[in-house]
Design a protein that fits this description.
CATH superfamily: Alpha/Beta hydrolase fold, catalytic domain
CATH class: Alpha Beta
CATH architecture: 3-Layer(aba) Sandwich
GO molecular function, one term: hydrolase activity
Largest sheet: 8 strands, mixed
Helix content: 25-40%
Number of domains: 1
Structural class: alpha/beta
Strand content: 15-25%
Protein name: Alpha/beta hydrolase fold-3 domain-containing protein
CATH topology: Rossmann fold
Number of strands: 8
Pfam families: Abhydrolase_3
Keywords: Hydrolase
Number of helices: 8
InterPro entries: AB_hydrolase_3 (IPR013094), AB_hydrolase_fold (IPR029058), GDXG_lipolytic_enzyme (IPR050300)
């Protein structure tokens, strides 16, 4: 009974937070969608991906460049959005996905995943695995030269890194990932939220990731069992460097409390010396800075720089 009451209490809080987030994100999301339509030539279509559960599908948006032909489906980027593992935010990366599809000329699949507390770990990871399997089984099955990369923002960056390490290791005979791009990701769940500090100092905390008590609640929703904190499907920063693909890019911010753990992973991969690693810290901005920015702001400039770097990396990965 006590556990049921605690779940209901947390569910109520999360529901209220989702409502607040939905209201506050209306204008920023609309701004990004409008810019994506004006700046980048592409089409977007909703697809439903079969899951391991017989009567459930995984929603995704497929971004295609102009004059796209299905015989070019052998090049695709799969992206996962940020959410704190609790917010339904599919579509929040529309500007990034449209830009990649338009400027590189490849398909971009922006995939959803189940959220906590309704579905805790490993529900989201299972959805990631199902999406990967579907892509390799359907969109690239006719090609022996298929190249698939993954990307993600915040919690989606966590899932992208998991896809490129623990899941890649499990399926390496059937599925090969060429690269992973993670934007301000959480990579180590064993660290206490209270111990995390933004590189830029206390003055940046107000614009950083969730405050410790909120981050602790999100973490508890996603990982109710502390024994799972060190699982590499939850903490990709603890994975063996050999599990990662040849190209790894980790892009974070100096005003983000998650930056130190992300950069620690980048340094660990660089020390391995067997892959191309890009570890960049964007200066003067904080967690999630690239969503809904307005022209003329520092956030706008930094977003353009970060996305341009991502496009450059992906062009090399896909040989464009």
């Amino acid at each position: 009974m006590a556990l049921d009451f605690e779940y209901l209490r947390v569910k109520l809080i999360i529901t209220l937070l989702r409502l607040i987030s939905w209201i506050t994100d209306i204008l920023p999301l609309r701004r990004d969608r409008l810019q994506s339509q004006l700046a980048y030539k592409h089409t977007r279509q909703r697809v439903l991906i079969p899951s391991r559960d017989k009567h459930r599908s995984i929603k995704a948006d497929l971004y295609l460049p102009p004059n796209h032909h299905h015989d070019t489906d052998n090049k695709i980027l799969i992206n996962w959005h940020g959410s704190g593992f609790i917010f339904p935010a599919l579509g929040s990366d529309t500007l990034f996905c449209a830009r990649v599809a338009s400027e590189i000329g490849i398909a971009v699949l922006d995939a959803d995943y189940r959220k906590a507390p309704e579905t805790p770990f490993p529900g989201a990871v299972e959805d990631v695995e199902d999406v990967l399997r579907w892509v390799f089984d359907t969109m690239t099955q006719k090609s022996t030269t298929a190249r698939v990369a993954v990307s993600g923002f915040s919690s989606g960056g966590n899932l992208a890194l998991v896809a490129a390490s623990a899941l890649r290791k499990q399926q390496q005979k059937q599925q090969q990932l060429a690269a992973v791009l993670a934007f301000y990701p959480v990579v180590d769940m064993t660290l206490a939220p209270e111990a995390k500090r933004a590189p830029r100092g206390a003055d940046s905390d107000s614009g950083s990731a969730a405050p410790p008590h909120v981050a602790r609640m999100f973490k508890g929703c996603y990982l109710p069992n502390p024994a799972m904190y060190a699982d590499t499907r939850a903490s990709p920063g603890l994975a063996d460097t050999a599990d990662f693909p040849f190209t790894v890019a980790i892009l974070t911010c100096d005003g983000d409390k998650l930056a130190p753990e992300a950069m620690a992973l980048a340094e660990k991969l660089k020390l391995d010396g067997k892959r191309k690693v890009v570890g960049e810290m964007v200066r003067g901005v904080s967690h999630g800075f690239d969503k809904g920015t307005e022209k003329g702001t520092l956030e706008w400039e930094r977003r353009e720089e970060m996305y341009a770097l991502a496009v450059t990396i992906l062009k090399e990965v896909f040989g464009v």
